[in-house]
Give the backbone structure.
Amino acid sequence: MKSSPDPAVRARFERYLHRVTERLRADDRVIGLVGMGSTAERWRVDEWSDHDLAIVVSPGHEESLRFGRDWLPDAEHLVVDVVEWHGGAKLVFDDGRVVELGVATPESLRAWAVHHHDVLFDRGGVADAVADAVASSTAVRDGDLARELQLVVATVRIGAGKARRGEVLAGGEMLRHDAVGHLLAAVAIVSPVDARADLLDPRRRVELTHPELAADLATAIRLPEVELAQRLLELLEHHFGSYEQFPRRGVVAIREWLTR
């Protein structure tokens, strides 16, 4: 993975984060701010890093912070401002900066899936809510190996079937996203704990934790759909063929089906 060696990149990131933090700290509606992802681990900030924020508000103020931008420095430079179905927002500036944000009360924050985080300020209850969220978040590595391996096989069959029918976009999405995700989840389950890994998303930073597999998958996902399906089964057997949970009968059957 490439990262910027230029300390000026992190300095710019830190300066804007400070501006956002101070604006929100001065807002009576806001009781806390939490950085997520690289906003929590700023030692790894590079030129592609987003400002990933959880804004914690008093009950009743969720919508005003979710849709209003009076708190946002440089809001006049936004070129994209969209709130998604789940309530999170993606903001893109004309210089390429990105802010991804969610708005929560302390109570609703407890239900979030949280891994890396940094409480940037807390007027009361925010740190406890984040701690509860972390404690209740299910790590990928705590999943069921047999289930993930079988899901790879099932998703390969369904995705390849859709592609053969002519639904190339839908089938390709299942293979490149879903099947790859289940394969990487299985890898996370059997791998030693690695502080560099993302506990919630097995696709994140796999280039750091499993570089050879990441390279194999990066090559595989460029293949046409049926070839990709075959390659995913090869990778599945290569990495898990010796495990008792390996769904050998399913792999054999779908390999045969793919050659028809």
About this structure: Residues 39 and 111 are 20 Å apart (CA to CA). DSSP finds ten helices and six strands in the chain. Strands lie at 30-36, 51-57, 78-83, 89-93, 98-104, 117-122. The chain has two domains: 7-136, 140-258.
